[in-house]
Structure formats: C-alpha cells, structure tokens
Amino acid sequence: MLCVLVSSFAQIDSTRRPAHWKSFIAPVSLMTAGLVTQGAISRDVQRHVRQGFPNFQTQADNYLEFAPSLVSLGLGALGVKGRHAFRDQLVLMVLSQGVANSLSFGLKKVVQYPRPNGEDNLSFPSGHTSVAFTGAAVLSKEYSQQSIWYSIAGYGVATSVAGMRVLNNKHWVADVLFSAGLGIASTEAVYAVYPWIQRNIFKQRKLAVIPFYSGQAYGLAMAAPL
Predict the structure, then answer these.
(1) How many other C-beta atoms are found inside a 10 Å radius of the C-beta of residue 199?
(2) Is the pLDDT of residue 17 over 90?
(3) Of the candidates 188, 183, 180, 173, the residue with the CA atom closest to the CA atom of residue 30
(4) Looking at domain 24-223, does it have CATH number 1.20.120?
(5) What is each CA distance from 173 to 97, 218, 221, in whole angstroms?
(6) For the segment 22-50, what is each residue's pLDDT rounded down to a tens digit?
(7) pLDDT tens per residue across span 70-86
(8) CA–CA gap between residue 184 and residue 169 (Å, rounded)
(9) Is this model's pTM higher than 0.85 or not?
(10) What is the C-alpha separation between 6 and 22, in angstroms, rounded?
C-alpha cells in the first residue's frame, strides 16, 4: 500500500520535474528488512537483548522522539536558511508526520501484533520510531545543505529512539526497522508531491497552522479556506 502511495505521489509532478525514485531505495529497504525479520529473527534478537540488558528501563524515548522535529522547526523559526521558507517547513512537517502517523496507527489496528512485553497487541509498527525518523528526514531535507551534521544528528537521535524501544522491551527489531523506513518514505513522498500542492491547493490562499491537544493526542493541524 505504501509503495503504491509513494509511486503515485512521485508521479504527480513528473511533468515538471523528474521523480527522484532513488530517494526511496533506503526507506523501502528498511521496510523490507522489517518484514523479513518479523517473527523468529526478531524473537531471537529480543532474547539476546533481554539477556544483555535485563534491567534496562528509560522514559527518554518518550521525549527524544520529538527532538528532530523540534530542532528542524526551531532552526526555521530562528531564521536559519533551509530548503523552504519557515511557513512551508511547517506545512511539510505537518503533512509528513500526518502521513507517517496515519499509516502507523492504521497498521497497528489492522496487524494487531503483540508487543514483546505482552502489554498489548499494538507492537507493529513503532509509532515512536516513525515520529523520530520523520522528523529526522525533514531536518535532513531542509538543512543538510547547510551542514551534514544536521542529518547525522537527526538520524542519530532517531536511531537512539528505535534502540530504546527495543531495549525497553516495547518493540521487536522488525517494528523499528519498518517504522524507520515508513517515516523516511512518508517524508520523501510529501516532498515529491509538495510542488503540486503549492500550485493547486495553497495558491493564493491563507494557511493557518494550529497546535492542538485532545487529551489523548497532540500535534499541529492545518486550516485553509476553500
């Protein structure tokens, strides 16, 4: 489903600019690795992790998942020149996180895979990991031309979040591999389709980006007059 979505997004603007299909090789490879390692391989990895770190427990992953996104938007708010203007960066972040988290949440409900700690059946994929890697992908897209260290830092933090999810016994290694690819692929898809969105949806319209909190979920919402 995701591959079809990505392909469609990339082709929408093909008349104006070439689709950079190569940018999807890495995320699709990660997603494939997640599917391949699901089951016996993940259980074997988790067994070794629990033997090596039986008492590991941290809440840091609950906060660090947002770090790449906050750094990216913080740089834009401070006036650091990125690939897009700050307004567009906000829209791109909301769209990228929206796509990644919608797919992640939908798959959790459909797949119903048990967590390694038996807490519930919402293990696959990892929402924390998809949020972190989506933010890291946006940070890289916007600021890697300024310095490669933005990409290294963003993906380094995202990888740490994925590792902590496994060490905390909340996710299998397959979950975080798939989710890393999902976050990056969602971002690449949004960036591919964004020129079309600008021309056909946001042109000559005022756009508002509004923070929200519902008691169970929080994030940014976009509103534009029809």
Answers:
(1) 11
(2) no
(3) 180
(4) no
(5) 22, 26, 31
(6) 889 999 999 999 999 999 999 999 999 99
(7) 999 999 999 999 999 99
(8) 24
(9) no
(10) 12
Instruction: Pull the structure tokens for residue 185.
Output: 């692929």
Cα–Cα distance, 215 to 201 (Å, whole number):
31
Residue 220, helix vs strand vs coil: strand
Closest of 186, 189, 208 to residue 132, by C-alpha: 186
User: In whole angstroms, what is the distance from residue 61 CA to residue 168 CA?
Assistant: 9
What's the Cα-to-Cα distance from 28 to each of 4, 33, 50, 203, rounded to whole Å? 12, 8, 28, 32
Mean pLDDT of the chain: 86
pLDDT tens digits for range 191-218:
999 999 888 876 655 555 555 444 444 4
Beta bridge partner(s), residue 223: 208
Q: Which long-range contacts (CB under 8 A, 24 or more apart) does 40-48 make?
A: 41/173, 41/174, 42/172, 42/173, 42/174, 42/175, 43/172, 45/166, 45/172, 45/173, 46/116, 46/166, 46/169, 46/172, 46/173
58-70 residue pLDDT tens: 999 999 999 999 9
Q: Helix, strand, coil % (nearest 5) of the chain?
A: 65, 5, 30
Per-domain boundaries in the chain: 24-223
